[in-house]
Design goal:
By secondary structure, the protein is an all-alpha fold. The longest helix has 29 residues. The protein is globular.
């Protein structure tokens, strides 16, 4: 339980720290925004592939189950994505249509969009306990916590742009942290309860993260004309997690 407590604190606090940093800066250039998003994409990509999918496929005879799990995870997030509005559209960046965009208050739209990211990330951390390896658990936790900080940092400016006050942004950050913690606990309970389908659960979390990376994070990092810096940031984030894994081995 000690390691679980550390994991929950790490995942929860990282988002709040990022938001507080964003409150101090308030405005960031598109170039820096894209670099930060690219870095987040690289960290998430490494966590999904080397931390989750690799472990799912490593179980003997689990290839088909892992493939099914990865596809299932991606499909679930895709369905959530269809019904959940995106913060990029409200900020004037995303032109993809979502069913709920015209019916909910702007601040609630932001919370819903951010939550969509936090659910697969939190589940990935919780599911990593199923590997039984402290190294894997810490790798996924540190990877998600590292990317939570810059990801939370860059959402503050759009919130200010739609008139959300600092006090409410802090409250939103605490809500996001609570979503992350709840998702971690859900993933943890899933692998403890359904140990027989561990490869499926690991792969489903990985597939969900891959969907978010491809559909949300990379397009956002390439939307302002700074594709190359964002791409090198992605590579840096990916290598950072691999280096982290190596150091924990």
């Amino acid at each position: 339980m000690k390691i679980l407590t550390i994991v929950l604190l790490s995942v929860g606090l990282s988002t709040t720290i990022g938001v507080l940093g964003g409150l101090l800066v308030r405005r960031i250039a598109h170039r820096l925004n894209d670099i930060i998003m690219g870095l987040s994409a690289g960290i998430m990509l490494a966590a999904a592939t080397s931390g989750l999918l690799a472990n799912a496929f490593a179980v003997k005879g689990s290839a088909l189950l892992a493939i099914f799990g990865a596809v299932t995870g991606a499909v679930i997030i895709s369905l959530l994505d269809y019904f959940t509005p995106h913060l990029h559209r409200i900020a004037g960046v995303d032109f993809e249509s979502h069913n709920s965009n015209g019916t909910i208050s702007k601040s609630l739209l932001f919370v819903a969009a951010i939550a969509l990211h936090k659910i697969p990330e939190g589940l990935a951390v919780g599911v990593s306990f199923g590997t039984g390896e402290i190294k894997d658990i810490l790798t996924i936790t540190l990877a998600i916590s590292l990317q939570n900080v810059p990801e939370a940092f860059v959402i503050v400016a759009p919130l200010f742009a739609v008139g959300v006050k600092s006090s409410r942004i802090i409250a939103i950050s605490l809500g996001i942290a609570a979503i992350s913690i709840t998702s971690v606990l859900s993933g943890y309970l899933l692998v403890k309860t359904f140990t027989g389908v561990l490869p499926f659960l690991l792969a489903a979390a990985g597939g969900a993260m891959l969907y978010v990376i491809s559909d949300e994070v990379i397009p956002e990092s390439h939307s302002h004309g700074f594709e190359k810096p964002a791409t090198f940031a992605l590579i840096s984030g990916f290598l950072l997690v691999l280096a982290l894994q190596s150091a924990l081995s």
